[in-house]
Amino acid sequence: MLSINPDVEIAFGQPPAGPGGIRGVMQYNRLMNFYGIGALAENEPGKVAKILQIMDYVSAHPDPTVRVTAMYGIEGKHWRWVDKEHEDFTLIGKWADDHTYVSRIGACIGMTAPFPLKAAREQWAYKNGFDKYGIESIIQVATPTMSKYKSKLEKIREEAYIAIITGDKPIDYFDEFVERYNAAGGIEVEREINEWYQTHRQ
């Protein structure tokens, strides 16, 4: 953007409000993934308890070095602190350009932990109010119909959004997009979600 127009000013704001004054953006669900313990683990006395102990240690440990080590490997070899007080770190050496190494070395053991985010990026986001207006789906896992139509519906949605944003389609095209989306499986997904909600909201 700056290369096209060096004088451009970039401003950050909140999501636009709709006709009813409601605003928001999609946020990731709290249940984004899960860990499974194989059934054979119960054949070894104490193994399940030890696995749970390890998971508790790396996810809820008060020392940020322990948590980063579990995710990214050895301090000084794979990563280093930029500002430990604010939990800001960086990958180092060849690891900085290798986004798959964490799985190969047995790291990437990370879970959402109840600790405030202190790094500069998160603090900047808090300062600008970007922790507000997040909309989380009440559906934490995909239903069968969601899985069946996911790829097709996402393609239709992204094509429509891009076309409207770039001006290839007028804003009124949104109504046509909704019709196409529903006809391609959106109605079935909505029906299944509503049925699920009615039976689980209690």
Give a nutshell description of this structure:
The chain is mostly helical. It has helices spanning 47-60, 64-72, 101-104, 120-127, 144-166, 173-200, and strands at residues 25-26, 79-83, 88-91, 134-135.
Task: Please provide a written account of the structure.
The structure is a single chain. By secondary structure, the protein is mainly alpha-helical. The protein is built from six helices and four strands; from the N terminus they run E-H-H-E-E-H-H-E-H-H. It has helices spanning 47-60, 64-72, 101-104, 120-127, 144-166, 173-200; strands at 25-26, 79-83, 88-91, 134-135. The strands form two sheets. It has a two-stranded parallel ribbon with strand order 1-4. Helix 5 (144-166) runs antiparallel to helix 6. The longest helix has 28 residues, at 173-200. It is extended, with a radius of gyration of 22 Å.
